[in-house]
Amino acid sequence: MKLANTTLADLPKGVLRPEYDRAALSAGIVHIGVGNFHRAHQSWYLHRLMQQGEALDWAIVGAGVRAYDTEMRERLVAQDCLTTLIELSPEGQSTEVVGSMIDYVPIEDGNGALIARMSQSDIRIVALTVTESGYYVDPVTNAFHTAHPDIQHDAQHPDTPRTAFGAMVAALRQRRAAGTGPFTGQSCDNLQGNGDILRQTVVGLARLQDSDLADWIDENCSFPNSMVDCIVPSTGPDLIEKAQALGIDDTAPVSHENFRQWVMEDDFCAGRPAWENVGVTFTNDVHAFETMKIRILNAGHQVITNVGEVLSLETISSCMDHALVGALFRKVALEDIVPHVDAVPGMAPTDYVQLIHDRFSNPKIHDTTRRVAFDGSARHPGFVLPLVRKAIAAGTPLEGLALVEAAWARMCQGEREDGSEILPNDPIWDKLQAVAKEARARPQAWLEQQSIYGELAQNAKFSATFERWLHMIWNEGMEAALTAYCGASPNAERAREA
Fold first, then answer.
1. Where is the Mannitol dehydrogenase C-terminal domain (predicted)?
2. pLDDT digit string (tens) for 436-461?
3. What is the CATH code of the structural domain delimited by 5-284?
4. Strands (E), 56-137
């Protein structure tokens, strides 16, 4: 059955569906970056509110700023912007059709349609999921990257921007002129201080164009920090077939784990839905929650995923099922990461490690190592290297973190230990691969990537530890290095003395 408004009443028995009148919904949010995560997370929370008869004037209008967003728009518009969510737990699965999105702005050069939609008074929140690397932030200094060609283009062509942020600035310029008022900019990406970073990018870009406008945005718009969490794999043919087996013809279904969390500051200049009624946590201390999640879950993904690629382990759950890789996660998390994580209400860091261990181990979630390893040049500076700096400053263990970085350098060489090719998996893959090949003989070459490691190449302890592990990985193999690190053989002492 083709998924559409007209077929909702005829969906198979057991499939949850919107109980509200979708024709009565009106827009309140533009969301830029309508990927799987957004539809399984933010869109779902709003849908649950609507199921309770609330937030009917906060429906989502989808948007994108890149040509590749066109395909997703076409798929969703063809099915009335409905999405089938398939929740996969170790015990089974459940299915729900989510209807909180009602439109999707056309994708076009210059983003005129997006600017026009964000300029309208009914839009009170502009939210984004544009990936960790999408905010034009220097990975070492965290400063706004004003010299980036996209930012320079938007600074010089404010009415026809390339970026989501340029479009936001253009819309705010129009709202200011028309007296429509500000909107809230809501980042839903995995960045510490994501609201602060969004403010930095939007205000920084506005300042390159018009300092008075930049001041107005900074004073009137709000940019709440938040933490989002749900493991959402990529959609492939198998998931589309799974939806069809359930009796639903959905060209863009989404699978997800049986866990969600959303923590945010209550800082919305133009109002917001009552998300607290469906489990969202509002707090003035988002930082503690996001620190726990980013340092244990996001960094934890990087702990295992490059090792998994080298060892031909296809999914995150298969990594956790591998005795050495699963042990690697627990040892690095407990010894190298937990010392830099504080407890949050209801959760101690060691308990959170166990929670993440169990979530990563869910065999029903086909989350590929390739997906999680993507864009390491943003994820390692964002998630792992801050922990290295913390360890250096505090004198806490960093053996495991250095091994993680050595595994990334080995992965970027582009060949698994079974001889199969690792296809390009980073925006700067060619550069990474060239340096990784050089680092096989001279490990320091990897750390000399200034835009990634900054001053860490000059730290003698970290550099020496990294070099030991990379030499061992190349000379004896990944499993030998993992065995040495996890202390399961006499190789451990030899690795430390090598």
1. 285-473
2. 999 999 999 999 999 999 999 999 99
3. 3.40.50.720
4. 59-63, 83-89, 92-98, 101-104, 125-128
